[in-house]
Design a protein that fits this description.
single chain; 3 helices; alpha/beta
C-alpha cells in the first residue's frame, strides 16, 4: 500500500502526517484532474430556515356523512370469506383482520380466498364458493 492511501494512525504525529498527506495530494491532483480534499467532516452548508405550512388536503363535504349500516347477523358455525384482490399485502391484511375478528365473533369460521390478479374479475369458482358456503364476505385490496 502506498503512502497516499494511508490515514494517520497515531495521535502524537497527526499534524505532521496531515502536512505530509497534503503535500502528497498536491503532487497527485494534477494527474487526477480534480482537487482532492482532505477533511474529516464534510463541509457544512449554510441554509436559511423557512416556515413550512402543512395544509389538510381533505375538503369540506357538501353532503352529510352517512353511517355505514350494512351488517350480517353471524352465528357460531357461519363462515366469512376474506377475499383478497391479489395486490401485494392484501392477503396479509386479511390474515391480520381474521386475528382481530376471531375474538369478536366466537365460533365463526373464516375462509381465505385470493384472486391472485388485481386487474381480473372474481372467478366463477370464487363466486360459487362464496355463495354456497359463506354468510358474509370481506373484500380487501393491498399496496
Amino acid at each position: 500500500m502506498n503512502d497516499c492511501a494511508t490515514w494517520p494512525s497515531e495521535p502524537s504525529n497527526v499534524k505532521q502526517q496531515l502536512v505530509t498527506r497534503r503535500r502528497q495530494l498536491a503532487t497527485v491532483e494534477p494527474i487526477l484532474g480534480y482537487q482532492a480534499r482532505l477533511s474529516a467532516k464534510p463541509p457544512i452548508e449554510k441554509r436559511e430556515t423557512e416556515t413550512m405550512e402543512f395544509i389538510d388536503p381533505r375538503g369540506v363535504s357538501q353532503r352529510p356523512i352517512e353511517p355505514y349500516e350494512v351488517t350480517a347477523a353471524l352465528s357460531p358455525g357461519d363462515t366469512v370469506a376474506l377475499f383478497a384482490n391479489g395486490f401485494p399485502d392484501s392477503g396479509a391484511f386479511l390474515e391480520h383482520l381474521e386475528k382481530v375478528l376471531t375474538p369478536e365473533l366466537p365460533g365463526v369460521e373464516f375462509l381465505h380466498l385470493n384472486k391472485g390478479n388485481a386487474s381480473a374479475l372474481a372467478s366463477e369458482e370464487h363466486l360459487s364458493t362464496i355463495a354456497e358456503s359463506c354468510s358474509a364476505v370481506v373484500a380487501a385490496y393491498g399496496h
